Amino acid sequence: MADALVHVDDVTKKYTTRGGSVAVLDHIDLEVPKGDFMALMGPSGSGKTTLLNLIGGLDRPTSGRVTAIGQEISRLSSRELAAWRSQHVGFIFQFYNLMPVLSAAQNVELPLLLTRMNKAERRRQVEVALGVVGLSDRLKHKPSELSGGQQQRVAIARALVIDPELILADEPTGDLDAVSARDVLELMTRLNEEFGKTILMVTHDPHSAEVAKRIIHLDKGVLSQEVRV
User: Fold this and answer.
1) Phi-psi region of 41 (alpha: psi -120 to 50; beta: other; left: phi over 0)
2) Whole-angstrom Cα distance, residue 197 to residue 45?
3) Average pLDDT for consecutive 10-residue bins of the chain (229 residues)?
4) Distance between CA 226 and CA 41 in Å, rounded?
5) What is the DSSP letter of 137?
6) Are strands 214-219 and 222-228 parallel, antiparallel or unpaired?
7) How many C-beta atoms surround the C-beta of residue 136 within 10 A?
8) What is the DSSP code string of 90-129?
9) Is the dihedral of CA 201, 205, 209, 215 positive or negative?
10) In terms of DSSP H, where are the helices of the chain?
């Protein structure tokens, strides 16, 4: 697929345990087109998060190749991977991963500290990102002063602040109540449709997966089914 943003080619990931070698992913092939919103589903232990981490350069395949945003990331050094992630990929996690002693604005600013932006430029980027997620009035609030849904929106703003081509979300609604989860999913749909962000979301929840354009099923390390929605 010529316009694919991500290519996963014949990827296997094995971990060594006391009982021997275990294949978490077994000869996976996957393409994620630019502008796609893909949900990755499967039972616990099926390899969903492992695949997400390989695509985001947080882990390396045992064999095979991962190419993302024109770069074969499976060949990059650790330093090169860190630089690549900081420029191209936004991560959203289930438990927000916010620094409790920092304000919302300071949490969102963290990825920009790795760039050459000056303080004024960073502040503008932070204000834009928090505005996109509807939290312009919460810049100075610390995580403990925000609801779970608001904390996740801060985390989404942190992922957005570098203006990434690719957003990787691992169970982004898994720790939220139904109303907050719906708000977060609506925001992610907006990021995809209005801002053109390519999104790959791991979820165990069929209702969350329904907002995606495609649903991919992973079972025992093998891609088993694709559903277009």
Assistant:
1) beta
2) 28
3) 83 86 90 94 88 93 93 90 90 90 96 89 94 93 94 94 94 89 92 94 91 92 73
4) 10
5) G
6) antiparallel
7) 11
8) EEE-TT----TTS-HHHHHHGGGGGSS--HHHHHHHHHHH
9) positive
10) 48-55, 78-88, 104-109, 119-132, 148-160, 178-193, 206-209
